[in-house]
Amino acid sequence: MPLRIFITGASSGLGAALARHYAARGATLGLVARRGDKLAALCATLPQATPYPLDVCDSSAMQAAAADFIARAGVPDIVIAAAGISVGTLTEQADDLKAFQAVMNTNVLGTVTAFQPFILPMRTARRGVLVGVGSVAGIRGLPGGSAYSASKAALITYLESLRVELAGSNIQVTTINPGYIATPMTAVNPYRMPFIMSAENAAAKIVRIIDQRRAYATIPWQMAITAKLLRMLPRPLYDRLFANAPRKPRQLPL
Hints:
The chain is α/β, with parallel strands linked by helices. It has nine helices and nine strands.
């Protein structure tokens, strides 16, 4: 039986690359994104793909999409919460409060909203994989990226809690922490991005990790080493090293 895959943030970047990868394996897809035109264009190129144009922060719309997908295809084998936004922010700027709220809502609550309607059906089926896309930026706080770093740190901890909650249910929870991926979100970065991956390369690595049923992984391997070193840095040394680090431009989320 073909895999049944539900992916959020699927209209571009990593989400679209994951959709193409699984489509090549013959999967039945449910794809979510806010940008309905881009989502429809992607689905037109993929067999067995149903578009769900909605905002992941809209829990009612997400529950309706989940119910529709289950009615069409059955309980998904894998749900990947790939929707996310990244913008530069400064707490001192009142205009950035909306950006903070949007980043936290999409990156954290959007993942919760994506998973919630599938957990009870997966418990009943006694199978399923929930995949959350964190970031190396969630390991330590980055200057100028406070909203994004905080959201990904919260997401990593949420996924850990969820993994423990679901122990014994046969539902796998997988945390993926990518480094830099060449997407529209990183295209605006005015600084060098070490070990940057194409979206297709990142998607292939993530699919391999999911196939291996790993609970936690950082990609690429060079960033996994970097993340471990960042965790080990004493706070005073980290502060000195990163106080003048290059920063992502401030902007309102798209």
